Fold:
Amino acid sequence: MNMKNLQTENTLIELQDLFHDLEPRLMRLSLKYQKTTWDAEDAVSETMVQVLAKIELFEGKSSLSTWIYSICVNKNLEILRKKKTYFEHMKKYFFHNVLQRHSSEGEFSLLNEDFQQSLGKLDEDERSVFLLSVYEELPQKQIAEILDMSLSNVKVKLHRGRKKLMSSLGDYLK
Structure:
């Protein structure tokens, strides 16, 4: 066995040990980005595959675990960007888990329906920014990364979306 093969084998063993230690933390991180366990598991798996494929590019400017975390964050953001149905998932989640719980109350049920209609009238970017900001409580900087828009654009879309919702739901606020 030559020296290069021995180094590669040692590196793989070290990575295997590190993955074993980091996997639960990467999974918790991914679950904060993704809404399903499957998507979170995909993000963690893709992270590990990319680490193995790109380990020779690791420059050592940070710790190996920090580098792996940054890959995991980027994988999660990549998955979110690729999901064209992400907004629809958020809308369904919000509707089924928040609004449906209180639908037996008369006026609140009407508000739910009117809110859903008003939300549906927002353009896609305004809806996405509103849901990610208000119901997922994500920081605006992260929303900008997820939706691939500037921070100032996120602020404008959030302001416009809120203004349109307030205008269309004004009767409930009197």
